[in-house]
């Protein structure tokens, strides 16, 4: 092996991938269970079955861990192709309602932890603002897909704001979590509200 040549071990790479996955899953559960402030790197390491340095090496500090957990929770299937393929406004609305329901189901616990930490931690407040801006941008993209089939009622900017509000995980937490709505009832509610945006 020549000087400067990097040694790559598939076994080591796989172990690093497993460690990273274990850290993210453990952190997700702890953040949802007890919030950002009460969760420590040591707790994440213990639940993941790794050392504290491994948490830092695999993901980063606590804010970086939370950012990664949050990103995984909001990521998923991109609905753009399915939305573009929709033949009718009803099909397009169904795609959007399904997408919002799936994201909120995965993300609402982490969103609650983020909201709880934003009032006391500057880095988390920045992340909360970033999350809200991102959701507003996504609302604009989804609305553009819907507008291939129907115009919005009233100003387009107002329609985007309304869709952004409908996409808030707080709605899912209240209706499904607190009021015990079924997934079907929540999706039906979204469908009705999205249809109300369109002429």
Write the layout of secondary structure elements.
Layout: H1 10-38, H2 41-48, H3 52-58, H4 62-74, H5 80-85, H6 89-118, H7 122-146, H8 156-166, H9 169-178, H10 183-197
What does this structure look like?
With 199 residues, the chain is mostly helical. The protein has 2 domains: 10-70, Homeodomain-like (Arc Repressor Mutant, subunit A); 76-197, Tetracycline Repressor, domain 2 (Orthogonal Bundle). The chain has 10 helices and no strands. The chain has helices spanning 10-38, 41-48, 52-58, 62-74, 80-85, 89-118, 122-146, 156-166, 169-178, 183-197. Helix 1 crosses helix 6 and helix 6 packs across helix 10 (183-197). The radius of gyration is 20 Å and the shape is elongated.
What CATH first level of the largest domain would be assigned?
A: Mainly Alpha
CATH topology of the largest domain: Tetracycline Repressor, domain 2
| Largest sheet: number of strands, sense, barrel closure | none
On the 0-100 scale, what is the average pLDDT? 94
Percent of residues in helices comes to over 70%
The helix/strand class is mainly alpha
Number of domains as seen in the coordinates = 2
Secondary-structure arrangement, i.e. CATH architecture of the largest domain: Orthogonal Bundle
The end-to-end distance, rounded to whole angstroms, is: 68 Å
Computed CA radius of gyration, to the nearest angstrom: 20 Å
SS element count, helices: 10
β-sheet strand percentage: under 5%
Instruction: Characterize the overall form.
Output: elongated
Number of strands: 0
Query: Would you list the SSEs in sequence order as H and E?
Result: HHHHHHHHHH
Note poorly predicted spans: none
């Amino acid at each position: 092996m020549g000087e400067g040549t990097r040694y790559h071990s598939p076994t080591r790479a796989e172990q690093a991938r497993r460690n990273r996955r274990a850290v993210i899953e453990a952190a997700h559960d702890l953040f949802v269970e007890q919030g950002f402030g009460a969760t420590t790197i040591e707790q994440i390491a213990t639940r993941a079955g790794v050392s504290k340095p491994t948490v830092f090496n695999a993901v980063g500090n606590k804010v970086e861990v939370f950012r990664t957990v949050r990103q995984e929770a909001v990521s998923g299937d991109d609905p753009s192709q399915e939305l573009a393929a929709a033949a009718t406004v009803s099909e397009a609305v169904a795609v959007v309602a399904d997408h919002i329901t799936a994201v909120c189901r995965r993300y609402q616990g982490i969103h609650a932890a983020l909201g709880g930490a934003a009032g006391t931690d500057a880095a988390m407040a920045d992340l909360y603002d970033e999350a809200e801006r991102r959701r507003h941008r996504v609302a604009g993209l989804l609305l553009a897909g819907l507008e291939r089939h129907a115009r919005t009622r009233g100003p387009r900017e107002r329609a985007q704001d309304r869709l952004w509000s409908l996409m808030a995980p707080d709605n899912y937490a209240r209706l499904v979590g607190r009021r015990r709505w079924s997934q079907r009832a929540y999706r039906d509610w979204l469908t009705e509200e999205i249809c109300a945006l369109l002429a």
